[in-house]
């Protein structure tokens, strides 16, 4: 995991080389080598060129696990390839990925320039289920209830996505501006605490110090999942501080009973919303 001076942590994407001449390509991947991640974390590769020979490229990426589990790849468009098992990973699984892309023709006259081994480990099993109807989130560790937290989700017209979402980025404090997600000037909060990204389109589970009595009672957000917090995020005992400190990249957050559709599998690291039959088709 990468952390900067502000405590911003993300599923770091790494490339073996940053200079990409027109006739070569590399894969920019997450998680990073040596990472410990939650049970929902796929191995996701973005290629620097569109791939027209997907079978050859996929064949050049091999994944071994201890204990052994069947892992399969799925293409999203021509430049993203995600790998996952049929069910969430088991805690303690060690995953070794070999990117053997050197000399592999990804498209006519464009060859891979990357030979890299990446290993990562699966941490404890944490899956949290948000119920938009009861305004509660049940956090489970290793299948047992760990904590129940009052929450608020998207208000009518701004409903939160349903489905299985994977934490892909963690920020102790961040700015959230409605302009960046198509909501114009409806909000601009410069110091949102304890924010964890669930989709590329801007869904977070985050601390909220302005929500008043919404938590556990009614849905009041623009689509994010809000947990009570204090300004600045200094109190680690409040729900948002506690949840942030007990989460990691790759943890799963499931949303149910919201009035929106299920999140798209490629909107974030959310391929779990696709059946195994479709995944391997």
TrEMBL record:
Gene Ontology terms, MF aspect: acyltransferase activity; peptidoglycan L,D-transpeptidase activity
Active site residues per record: 206, 224
Pathways involved: Glycan biosynthesis; Cell wall biogenesis; peptidoglycan biosynthesis
GO biological process: cell wall organization; peptidoglycan-protein cross-linking; regulation of cell shape
PROSITE patterns with a match to the protein in the record: LD_TPASE (PS52029)
Domain of life: Bacteria
SUPFAM superfamilies, alphabetized: L,D-transpeptidase catalytic domain-like (SSF141523)
All copies of domain L,D-TPase catalytic, residue ranges: 126-256
Keywords annotated in UniProt: Acyltransferase, Cell membrane, Cell shape, Cell wall biogenesis/degradation, Lipoprotein, Membrane, Palmitate, Peptidoglycan synthesis, Signal, Transferase
Cellular component, GO, one term: extracellular region
Entries under InterPro entries matching the protein: Big_10, LD-transpeptidase, LD_TPept_cat_dom, Transpep_catalytic_dom
Name this protein carries in UniProt: L,D-TPase catalytic domain-containing protein
Taxonomic placement: Bacteria, Bacillati, Actinomycetota, Actinomycetes, Kitasatosporales
């Amino acid at each position: 995991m990468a952390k900067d001076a502000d405590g911003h942590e993300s599923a770091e994407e790494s490339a073996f080389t940053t200079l990409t001449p027109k006739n070569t390509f590399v894969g920019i991947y997450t998680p990073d080598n040596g990472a410990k991640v939650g049970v929902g974390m796929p191995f996701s590769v973005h290629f620097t060129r569109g791939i027209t020979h997907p079978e050859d490229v996929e064949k050049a990426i091999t994944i071994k696990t201890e204990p052994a589990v069947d892992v399969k790849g799925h293409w999203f468009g021509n430049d993203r390839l995600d790998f996952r098992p049929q069910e969430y990973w088991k805690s303690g699984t060690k995953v070794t990925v070999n990117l053997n892309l050197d000399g592999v023709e990804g498209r006519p006259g464009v060859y891979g320039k990357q030979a890299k081994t990446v290993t990562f480990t699966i941490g404890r099993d944490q899956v949290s289920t948000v119920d938009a109807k009861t305004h509660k989130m049940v956090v489970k560790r290793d299948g047992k209830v760990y904590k129940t937290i009052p929450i608020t989700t998207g208000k009518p017209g701004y409903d939160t996505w349903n489905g299985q979402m994977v934490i892909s980025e963690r920020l102790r404090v961040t700015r959230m501006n409605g302009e960046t997600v198509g909501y114009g000037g409806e909000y601009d909060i410069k110091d949102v605490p304890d924010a964890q990204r669930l989709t590329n389109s801007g869904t977070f589970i985050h601390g909220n110090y302005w929500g008043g009595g919404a938590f556990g009672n009614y849905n009041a957000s623009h689509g994010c999942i809000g947990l009570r917090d204090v300004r600045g995020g200094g109190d680690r005992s409040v729900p948002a501080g506690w949840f942030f400190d007990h989460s990691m990249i790759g943890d799963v957050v499931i949303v149910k009973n919201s009035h929106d559709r299920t999140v798209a599998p490629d909107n974030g690291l959310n391929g779990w919303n696709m059946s195994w039959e479709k995944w391997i088709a």
